[in-house]
Each structure stands twice: as structure tokens, then as C-alpha cells.
């Protein structure tokens, strides 16, 4: 386990863990100073490539973006999402995770957990690979969005799942769209940090998609807080550029050789 991972685990219950996604070198470089963990998420499928879900993004694409992000990220723990279909069985999971780590220099991989893939977490862990789990609403396995952990039965199931993922060797678990009371119970039931998205302040840390907080993605569900309206700023800048080109204000002497 590397030092960055140990430091993240140490924060549990003491200091909130700050996490965001990045798909490019420039964004990785800008957010690195303020984050503990940066995820190259398979959300790039929707956010960057305009796909309807995350199911078709492939390993090579994730790998290329991760290489770019690695160039910008020096301080934060760099985690890469394993895309759907890349961890169908322990053998494939190990081959693909090892290759991702070798080619991109990331510190860890994240997989989405259904109730049948605990053996993937343990086999990655047993091969020396740092692995993060992901429970609740898991877009690779679920079609229809709904808040998870609402009934006491669902709550019990999620707590047990989180405990088993911890036991299998994960260093942290993403809780996606899980009710506040269940997020609290899960967080109290395990020794590894929970990182919430749409899962309340009861988690040990928070993650959001960077394009969402920047107001770039056009996707702003209840759990997203838009910190800046980049779309508006970009439109303003591009309009000025367009006017300058048309009116021959750009390029000026200053921009010419
Ligand atoms: O792909 C992603 O960006 C994620 C986060 C939303 C947790 O899995």
C-alpha cells in the first residue's frame, strides 16, 4: 500500500477527503492542489464523448485519458475506473488492471460492485493492486436511476456488501446515491473511508464530476453543486473572438510575426 493511500485511510473520521474527476492533463493539473484523490472516471463516456451511458467506453480510451491526466497530477492519489467488461473474471481483471497501472502510472483502480464480484476485489488485492469499490447506484450494472438504501432490508444488504468489500481488501468505497441514514450506517460500519456522490455529508469524503461543478456538462441533478457557469463564460469569450475575427481586430500587430 503506498503512502498516499495510507494518508487517505488515516483521514477517515477526522478530515473530509476531497475527490474530483479529471479526463485531461490541464484539468488534472489545475485541480491537483485542492484534491486528495483524482479519478479518471468512466463518466467520460457521457460527459466527454456524449454516449448515452458508460457501457461502451473501452479500456484503450480510459488508458489514453489516464496517461494525459497523469502528466498533470503530481500530489493527489490517481485512481482509474475499470470500464464495464474489463473485469469479468479475476484473470481478466488482473491482466487489465496491471496493464492500466503499468501504462498510465496510476496508483489504484476502481471497480463497480454488484453482489457477485467480491472475488475480483480480493484477487486484485492479492496481486498487490490497490482497489477502490463502488456501491449503491452503479451505472455499469443498473439502468434506472433510483436512491439506494431506503428500506431497512436494502440498508442491511448495503452494509453487508460494504463490509465484505473491505474484507476483500479495498482501501475505500464510493457510495453513489445512497440515502443519508444508510450512508451514515455504512460509514460507521467499516474502517476504510467512504466517498460519497449524492450520498450526504455522512460519508468520509465527497466526489463529483468536475465538468458538473464547473457548469460545463449540462447535467445538474440535486446532488451536484454548480460552482461556476463555465458555459456562460466560454460563450462570452467565443463571441468576442468571433466578433474580433469578423471585424479584423484579431489578429492584431501584437499577434503577428
Ligand atoms: O465515473 C465516475 O466519474 C465515477 C464517479 C462519479 C464516482 O464513478
Chain-wise SSE layout:
Blueprint: H1 3-11, E1 17-21, H2 25-32, E2 37-40, H3 44-47, H4 59-72, E3 77-81, H5 90-104, E4 108-110, H6 118-126, E5 131-136, H7 152-168, E6 172-176, H8 180-189, E7 194-197, E8 205-208, H9 210-213, H10 230-246
Parallel strand pairs: 1-2, 1-8, 2-3, 3-4, 4-5, 5-6, 6-7, 7-8
Helix pairs in contact: 2-4, 4-5, 5-6, 6-7, 7-8
Could you characterize the architecture of this molecule?
- Helix 2 (25-32) crosses helix 4, helix 4 (59-72) runs parallel beside helix 5 (90-104) and helix 6 packs parallel to helix 7.
- This protein has an 8-stranded parallel barrel with strand order 1-2-3-4-5-6-7-8, surrounded by 7 helices.
- The chain is an alpha/beta fold.
- Helices cover 42% and strands 14% of the residues.
- 3-methyl-2-oxobutanoic acid binds at residues 21, 39, 41-43, 81, 174, 197, 207, 209.
